[in-house]
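User: Can you fold this complex?
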Amino acid sequence: MAVLTWNRYGKSSVRLVKVRRTTEPHEIVDLTIDVALEGTFDKVYTDGDNSACLATDTMKNTVYAFARVEPIDHVESFAVKLAEYFCERPGVSTACIQAAEHPWTRLQPHAFVRSGDEEWTTTVTSNGDRVSIVSGLRGLVVLKTTDSAFSGFPRDQFTTLPETRDRILATSITSTWTYADGFSDFGKRDAIRSALLKTFADHKSESVQQTLYEMGQAALAACDGVRDIQLSLPNRHHLLVDLAPFGLDNPNEIFVATEQPFGLIEARITRQA
Amino acid sequence: MAVLTWNRYGKSSVRLVKVRRTTEPHEIVDLTIDVALEGTFDKVYTDGDNSACLATDTMKNTVYAFARVEPIDHVESFAVKLAEYFCERPGVSTACIQAAEHPWTRLQPHAFVRSGDEEWTTTVTSNGDRVSIVSGLRGLVVLKTTDSAFSGFPRDQFTTLPETRDRILATSITSTWTYADGFSDFGKRDAIRSALLKTFADHKSESVQQTLYEMGQAALAACDGVRDIQLSLPNRHHLLVDLAPFGLDNPNEIFVATEQPFGLIEARITRQA
Amino acid sequence: MAVLTWNRYGKSSVRLVKVRRTTEPHEIVDLTIDVALEGTFDKVYTDGDNSACLATDTMKNTVYAFARVEPIDHVESFAVKLAEYFCERPGVSTACIQAAEHPWTRLQPHAFVRSGDEEWTTTVTSNGDRVSIVSGLRGLVVLKTTDSAFSGFPRDQFTTLPETRDRILATSITSTWTYADGFSDFGKRDAIRSALLKTFADHKSESVQQTLYEMGQAALAACDGVRDIQLSLPNRHHLLVDLAPFGLDNPNEIFVATEQPFGLIEARITRQA
Amino acid sequence: MAVLTWNRYGKSSVRLVKVRRTTEPHEIVDLTIDVALEGTFDKVYTDGDNSACLATDTMKNTVYAFARVEPIDHVESFAVKLAEYFCERPGVSTACIQAAEHPWTRLQPHAFVRSGDEEWTTTVTSNGDRVSIVSGLRGLVVLKTTDSAFSGFPRDQFTTLPETRDRILATSITSTWTYADGFSDFGKRDAIRSALLKTFADHKSESVQQTLYEMGQAALAACDGVRDIQLSLPNRHHLLVDLAPFGLDNPNEIFVATEQPFGLIEARITRQA
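Assistant: Here's the predicted assembly.
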């Protein structure tokens, strides 16, 4: 016999742009939102009984209606409002709102330029009693031309990598951090981002791992309200080109940037009392 | 104080093509492999001490060397070999091998054509004692032109969606299933795929949810060795175009295929004794 | 002084799915259409005078209305109807319709599975007097495990590539072909595709270039109505992995599939009287 | 009979990163380069005779070797050197070098952050006698919240679009411009980019077309050495959400950002004596 042991459903990739015109200069908020609900929806699956199945189209409409009413000063506050609302719908036990915020840089009071592919993220989950808020960023691509080494690693029968005391280090930072209960100073994300960038740039790196750990510590130091931070750092390898066949040296100057394969280093750093 | 509470690292997107020439006709296996290890690697992060840090480049080399020696009859067996090997390296507590297999269709004894973007997947995890095998597929895009309804759902202040007894249903199937311990008849994946497809096509659907549940049941019925199956079905909405302004009717004939937003329906179905 | 010396505008990526329900089994046509117009639109640019500027939204509506009325037996015939219609709008001198057809394979009378990323294409251009039809395909990914060599090429100071008499040859075929004026047997595209595939598979290749030329000749032979054919073949390099450091040979068996860089070979073959 | 009437071949997507360490702070150049050659290569296609076929692998090596020797102060100068070199190889009649430059913003003397997906481009073509240089940019995404109208357009049986005097205007700018023969002040691209951005932001727009024309004029004014400029502006539609069903107004505040379909407006503006 087969039994439904877990289910979740919702609407994904709701594209929402809000323009605040009541202020000068205009302000713009650009979000992609996912709504996902868990609850007592088993009969939708097992019996084809839709009487408890809030349509995903209704979820989308709800997002747009809330966007008109709410200021969306911070994406987290907006997501909390949505999560709390959906959590009160009949049958819902947990509502999860994920949002990606696409940043724009002001050109002029009413004009903007997109600041690359980097995005702010947040995941707000409510079970009716408690709301958890995990924010983050992704697509923050950085590179340093020195102060990065990788040596002293074990050598076995499959090891061919030479040791190096000076290499290019490049990555695309993905990070998520958990705010403490009751925290609401969401503008602090800028300080966290700055701490990540500064540490990446300044650290004398023995490995991606060590730099990741320093970055995580710096982020925790930058915002008291963060309980823990997770970092995922793909190692975007830049391989030194062998120019010797052409009678040329290559003093760490000419590199091939590769996409596949890549190292992937992940860790979580947690604040301790 | 900040403490390292979790870490994992490895090599991702190792692209491996193996040609078996000893048989006629030639056979080809096309894989993308990720290796990820957990273990006693804290000092790499906290002290910059790489003495326990197996280089991710070594992991890549190991994959290629194993590929030469192993037959790779099933991607699962190959991943098990890799997981068991890595799990025995110093300091490793858990080794996880993820593989995507890109299928090719034979044209001729030595020539092949790619069968679209659909992929077989497997995730093999070993902790030294126990090996878990979760296989699946993704990117299997299907559409039915009838036998799909969505009605009887609740209406609130934000509901505008009309009820329908006949709509297009389209999705891109992602599924993962867990094999029972000791299972090794991995060729059964074809029967699971067939069951998913046949059920999608034949089911009189009251919702994506109900069709998902039927598909999961059929997959469990198709392979005794599957303990549970998870399905993730994005609802690729096909919206009926309003042709009335142009003096034309539209008897369920002309649709806009949209990408954003999309419904997302997910569930797990588990075999019970 | 700056002068407007060329302009074109239109609507792109109009997603259209037509279901033919009057027949059994159901049939489905899945198209992405671009409309582009040239004509006497200078004042739109230079004076902000929109009186001659057919809205691109109107173009989109026109596509959907025509889709209701036209059978769309062949994407080319449908594109011809649209091109001729748009060419008669005020101010239009040239109308260009580009269409990509996304193929589906039948599972059951009312259900279908997407046949990968391969697409049929057509570009129909009308200037009111004459209609040109250039059809094609793209994303047809093929690979052969033998019968491909590359040797005898010149060696200069920057050459390091070894000669080979046996390598993997893989490519993603993009091809466009021009039909003769008055040609209308558009179902012949299947024969052209088959000729391309069979020649790729059977040819004893001295280079991608030579195989391309054979493929083009075979395509012309497969359809009298084709005046010329253009092929664009990226060389998707599969590099032999050096396993010697691990004490293993590699008799053309283990390869890395790479994406960057890639060779790109292009040519046009024209029928001569 | 079938005859080879055109051919071209080369290496695409050569990824090159050069670090200049001899200066403080370090400088980085990040390029993706395509080499394409035309010439007397017919026998490669028709006879399988590779004696004239410079290997595309050799082209790649040449790019890296030149990168070591050349300063790459401007991507254009580097591409000219490559084009002239390849044009002198046996059999080559035309060499075309395309380059995309991926910009990085300095964080610190030896660390950088990627400035989004925007890229500088150049296409340098040499036939041995004459070198043409067409530079540009792509992926520059901009949006304005007011000063954009679209009204006064013709209405026919398929027109449903309402007129508007105030809408969001968003686009991703792709532009290419041709430098006059002998021009070498390639740092002027920054002035061109600034002129495009400033005009987009400041223009009271009656249509994308009119704004495009103003942008092109401003670019020509910003750099005397530009002979003509081409702009391609997709209209990234932001649709006003109808909130009336929920009892809410929407005073140009809440929008859906859509990707498909999109308007596409293109033109060339040429300097006249």
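The first strand of chain B starts at residue 2 and ends at 20. The mean pLDDT of chain B is 97.
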